[in-house]
Amino acid sequence: MTEETVSSGTPDALVVFTPSGRRGRFAIGTPLLQAARSLGVDIDSVCGGRGLCGRCQILCMEGDFPKHGIRSSEESLSAFTQTEERFEKVKKKSLNGRRLSCHTLLQNDVVVDVPPDSQVHRQVVRKDAEVLDIKLDANIRLHFVEVQEPDMHDPSGDLRRVKQALEKEWGLTGLGADISLLSTLQKTLRKGDWKITVAVDNESQIIAVWPGLKERIYGLAVDVGSTTIAANLCDLATGEVVHSAGLMNPQIRFGEDLMSRVSYVMMHPGGEVEMTAAVREALNTLIQETASKAGADAEDVLSFTFVANPVMHHLLLGIDPVELGGAPFALTVDEAVNCLASELDLQAHPNARVYLLPCIAGHVGADTAGVMLAELPQRFEEYTLLVDVGTNAEIVLGNNQRMMACSSPTGPAFEGAQISGGQRAAPGAIERVRIDPTTLEPKFSIIGCEHWSDQPEFNAGSTGVTGICGSGIIEIVAEMYLSGVINQDGVIDPAMAAVNPRVFEDGRTFSYLLHDGDVRIAITQNDVRQIQLAKAALYAGIKLLMDHMGVVTVDRIRLAGAFGSHIDVKYAMVLGLIPDCTLENVSSAGNAAGSGARIALLDKNSRSLIEETVRKIEKIETALEPRFQELFVDAMAFPNKTDPFPELAKEVILPAIKEVDLGGGDKRGRRKRRRAAE
């Protein structure tokens, strides 16, 4: 690191900043914040060294540091100041041995630590250890300045003097200003007694001013799904998620899936206006809710990032999505979109900024770009498969050499729709199922109840059985296959009806009785077919990408979204939803699309990264691929026609399932289960 020196003859001292390791000699009496800035040390401050914000806290290291040739102690710094005492009193919290670097003066050689929460570009640690931490570098920063008052000798305008103050105190030059703030600038300056806080976007544009010191502004990262909208309100200074909220997408009343909403617009000219208004109204509800729960006002929200599938993306922007309903599935815009929140009728700060991540293709949207930003498969040598399953599966495969993407029409079966007893994941929904291989008696767990049931009349207290959700559908069909109730072609075996009342004649086909209580739930032949159709579409899309990529196996599979969060990967492999992969390398990515939106909100540099990545992705359109139909037909079988039961499943998955408490399974039953699988 470059070591700064002061002029000879002036008493000076050596200061070393950790963890950066930057060091330099400065005159005795130099404020540590000033020394840090001159060395380029990453240390935060909003108030400009006035001891008001408390963000520039440091810790004096005690002891001998032979590496630096320093003995460091509290005596190396000036005594605790009145400013620091006033800060503790006003903020009503102790500094706990830390010092405000803006009011702490250098007295002797010293080693100073800059804690993570005092760094501008700190790491925001995320819960998932497999994903890189977020580097905090938000596009909007706050700066407190004191502006020179006008007088008869200086006729310059107030805005010019604000810019001069920002250049003098913060080194910001060439700033522009949103014209809308000019109408309130003079009143704000005078109300704040010429002391104001300025919000600057990308170190280039003044977008807001407040009288006095303002310490907190917020950003909202939003995943606009076809079924639900999820939002995280973040403190732009700390990266902390201060409140999360979600609600059902009100566009559902126009159609449950994407194509039905496109059809609505086709049949009702101007219908896109209704749907745009509906989603924007829902977003305003989330803005108000999250800000209120954070103890803030909606006008404190200055930044938004959005991810969405292509249809939701277009409707959010007020664009007619009809062209996405048929070949060539043309997007109006596939680039990232930057605009004002007011242009989307969002009720936040009038100059709040909006960033929509780029779309990848006509059916692979900004939500998939968000998943890629969170997972970064393009940085690994291993082949990674990303699968985000909704009513339309968005699939990405590749590594640091090549990336490919496609979408596949899985339909809503995995979400419980088009299933006779299906429902969305909610209290009362069956989510886990096991079938005894000998007696065919089921046991299951429901959302809202921790224990399992093996009694047909089971009712979990106040939360009774109301239906079966997506993860439950996957497990019950897989268990029916493993226990021999259905064969490889997905047909419920009529012979079972003669020996077990759980299997019964149901019109021209047969069904399996899962629960006979207040709500009767039976898995019908049509239910099995719906799962076959959905899983065949998903698997065919994956295999198509693998064929184009020239690989026969993948190294890592990440399942994104609500589907990926709740599905048991063993059963996904049993049914043939996903290709062979070492079981420990198959995992849930949670709401990776929402995580990508949050990364784009908190790290402005990630935006150019995902824009560049998206431009390099090769897009495969399944609707135009002749081989897709062949792969689809093969994948209708369990697990699929060309590979009746993967070797990996024989060696790993079945033993893993066997070890689960199945409630009464014996050796004979396990042999039957294995024979059925083989």
Write the layout of secondary structure elements.
Elements (H helix, E strand, L loop, with lengths): L11 E7 L4 E5 L4 H8 L17 E4 L2 E3 L4 E3 L9 H10 L7 E2 L9 E4 L9 E2 L9 E2 L4 E7 L11 H13 L5 E2 L4 H10 L3 E7 L3 E7 L6 E7 L3 E8 L5 E8 L9 H10 L3 H23 L7 E8 L1 H7 L20 E4 L12 E4 L9 H10 L8 E5 L4 E6 L4 E6 L20 E7 L6 E5 L20 E2 L1 H13 L12 H5 L3 E4 L2 E8 L3 E4 L1 H25 L6 E5 H6 L2 H7 L10 E5 L1 H11 L2 H12 L1 E2 L6 H9 L12 H12 L8 H11 L1
Parallel strand pairs: 1-7, 11-13, 14-17, 17-19, 20-29, 22-31, 23-25, 29-30
Antiparallel strand pairs: 1-2, 3-6, 3-7, 4-5, 8-9, 10-12, 12-13, 14-15, 15-16, 18-19, 20-21, 21-22, 23-24, 26-27, 27-28
Helix pairs in contact: 8-14, 8-15, 9-13, 11-16, 13-17
Architecture overview:
By secondary structure, this protein is an alpha/beta fold. The protein folds into 5 domains: 12-118, Beta-grasp domain (Ubiquitin-like (UB roll), Roll); 134-211, Ubiquitin-like (UB roll) (Roll); 218-356, Nucleotidyltransferase, domain 5 (2-Layer Sandwich); 371-411 and 531-642, Nucleotidyltransferase, domain 5 (2-Layer Sandwich), CATH 3.30.420; 413-530 and 651-677, no CATH class. Helix content is 30%, strand content 23%. The strands form 8 sheets. It has a 6-stranded mixed beta sheet, with helices on both faces. Strand 1 (12-18) and strand 2 (23-27) form a beta hairpin. Helix 9 (470-482) packs across helix 13 (569-575), helix 11 packs across helix 16 (626-634) and helix 13 (569-575) packs across helix 17 (647-658). The model is unreliable at 125-132, 455-463, 644-648 and 658-678 (pLDDT under 50).
